TrEMBL record:
This is UDP-galactopyranose mutase. Belongs to the UDP-galactopyranose/dTDP-fucopyranose mutase family. One of its GO terms (molecular function) is UDP-galactopyranose mutase activity. Gene3D superfamilies: NAD(P)-binding Rossmann-like Domain. InterPro entries: UDP-GALP_mutase, UDP-GalPyranose_mutase_C. It comes from the Bacteria. Its cofactor is FAD. It comes from Sphingobacterium kitahiroshimense. The keyword Isomerase applies.
Amino acid sequence: MYDFLIVGCGFAGAVLAERLAVEGKKILIVDKRDHIAGNAYDYYNEDGILIHKYGPHIFHTNSEDVFRYLSRFTEWRPYEHRVLGSVDGLLVPIPINLTTINELYGKNLTSDEVTSFLASKAEKRNPILTSEDVVLNAVGKELYEKFFKGYTKKQWDLDPSELDASVTARVPTRTNKDDRYFTDNFQAMPKNGYTEMFKKMLSHKNISIMLQTDYKDIIDVIPFRTMIYTGPIDSYFDYCYGKLPYRSIDFKFETFNQEIYQETGTINYPTSNLYTRITEFKYLTGQKNPKTTIVYEYPTADGDPYYPIPRKQNQDVYNQYKKLSEEHSNVYFTGRLATYKYYNMDQVVAQSLALYRKIKNQEIYVN
């Protein structure tokens, strides 16, 4: 008899497995894939280069609690991610900053001057409801079309005017020369990779792991008291309200017989090419190798569900599933897929730590 059956071995499931196992609970964690670590899974390719199977995962957080918790299972390599955008034949910093504007427009503006420059370009929107509204309100139509419109269309197969404001609100506009993609207090990569971190997280004697296993095949065979479900919520309920749409990515890896391929960790292609970006892994990992591996990302409607699509009609469908989930007192739904939210890794960890505290405080936790 297991105390908890946890479906999914990504951050959401692994954090809960570790926390509950330390409390003396017997845990069975199952995953359809043949590896742990979910989408954060990394491994060494045939050339000995550490790559992320499901695209670049760059850790950053403002939560000291989250960072301190994960530090139990890994040492860190300090890393601040930088992104360039291929725009008008130039490679300029993304998010848009002072350098971006000066290089694009051949100017030498100061921070104060660029604030006025952007204000002169902005098209004020009220209320701000869509991703298009966010960008036009901040930087105007010209920069919107150079940086956001094409990239968003490729990524989501929707015009920014059809997407919730939260999508482009994730990417700020800066009036200084800060060219870091993230500004969080804690920015680092697991020194030996994500998979090694997950191995340590899941090494407790109270945790059993079954890979290449669909929980539906074992749910009536293996006894357990409570389920924690981190898969797609619509799948759990057999799509009774219809399928929730997701965007997926087709990853194409390429290795070159040279030390460096591009100028920085990631280069975005907002208007050119079918792929959205190219990432070179050695920037992320700090690895030394005479060869280098890159990954192209081609967004697609088919494949593994990576990104919940933030639109009102999708949220309405999710809310129906959420209401149904609240009737299942012995099942907890958590993580990006089970809550249909576009969470970063640190947000998933924080969500799981909060759910652990909730479970610990509930009477169901007492045998």
